[in-house]
Structure formats: structure tokens, C-alpha cells
Design brief:
Helix content is 29%, strand content 34%. The protein has two domains: 83 residues, Gp5 N-terminal domain (OB fold (Dihydrolipoamide Acetyltransferase, E2P), Beta Barrel); 43 residues, no CATH class. With 140 residues, the chain is an alpha+beta fold. The N and C termini lie far apart (54 Å).
Length: 140
């Protein structure tokens, strides 16, 4: 009887191009753009879930993962309730480096006044703090 059930599940699952599983992140590997997820059900842990959108979930985050053609080997992150950082980048640039360069240029600005050029940016320390905070949100 279980073979009939297995065949029925196989037939139904093959008709669904993408299914969704909820779970908890158990490990994140930013250098590989993957994470591992323990499903909310008692099913086995899902390894190497692809992080496709530059979103890095925190360990312990509640997530939704998609399965392409219901195959556990083709999984990807859909959403996460807690993240550690974002990566917004192309092959040539990342938002983090562009913003860091912008802050450096602002700090180096010189203006001409009636009494000559400006010497020092008065709020330079605030820009330094801002530059230090950026890596907490973005990664290159």
C-alpha cells in the first residue's frame, strides 16, 4: 500500500514546479552564498539553500525556502524574518564601496568663501561614524 502512496506523491509533486517550506536557519555560509535550514516539520535538515537576492539571514531566523520541482537539492531562500546584512552589487561595483567613496569625497570638499577656501569640514567626525556603520548593513 505504501508504494501506491509513494507513486501518488511522486505524481502530485512532479506537477508542482515550486513548493515552499518554512523553517529555521541553522548555518549561514556567506562565502558560498548558502545556508542550512531545519524545516518546521520533523523532516531532515535542508543543506546548501541558495542565497540568491543578496540577503543573508541570521542563524535562528525563521525563513521560507522554495524547492524547484520539489527537489531538496534545488532550494533557494524566499524570505527571512532576521537578516545579518544585504549585498547590493554588480560585477563592477557594490553599494557599500560607492557609499564609502561618497563619504570620503564629502569629507574632502573645499568651498570658496569671501575669506578664502574652507579649511576643515566641521562635522567630519559624524561622517566617520557613518562610514563605520555602513558595513553593519551592507557587504561588498
Amino acid at each position: 500500500m505504501s508504494s501506491v502512496k509513494d507513486l501518488f506523491e511522486q505524481m502530485v509533486n512532479s506537477q508542482i514546479p515550486v513548493s515552499v517550506i518554512s523553517g529555521i536557519v541553522t548555518a549561514v555560509r556567506p562565502d558560498e552564498d548558502t545556508c542550512d535550514v531545519q524545516p518546521q516539520s520533523a523532516d531532515a535538515e535542508v543543506f546548501d539553500v541558495a542565497l540568491l537576492n543578496g540577503i543573508y539571514p541570521a542563524v535562528g531566523a525563521e525563513v521560507l525556502i522554495g524547492l524547484v520541482e520539489n527537489r531538496l537539492v534545488d532550494t533557494f531562500l524566499i524570505s527571512a524574518d532576521k537578516i545579518t546584512h544585504y549585498r547590493l552589487a554588480t560585477e563592477q561595483e557594490s553599494l557599500l564601496t560607492v557609499l564609502q567613496d561618497l563619504i570620503k569625497l564629502i569629507q574632502a570638499m573645499v568651498f570658496t568663501t569671501n575669506s578664502g577656501p574652507t579649511i576643515k569640514l566641521l562635522n567630519s567626525a559624524q561622517f566617520d561614524l557613518l562610514a563605520k556603520r555602513l558595513p553593519n548593513l551592507l557587504t561588498a
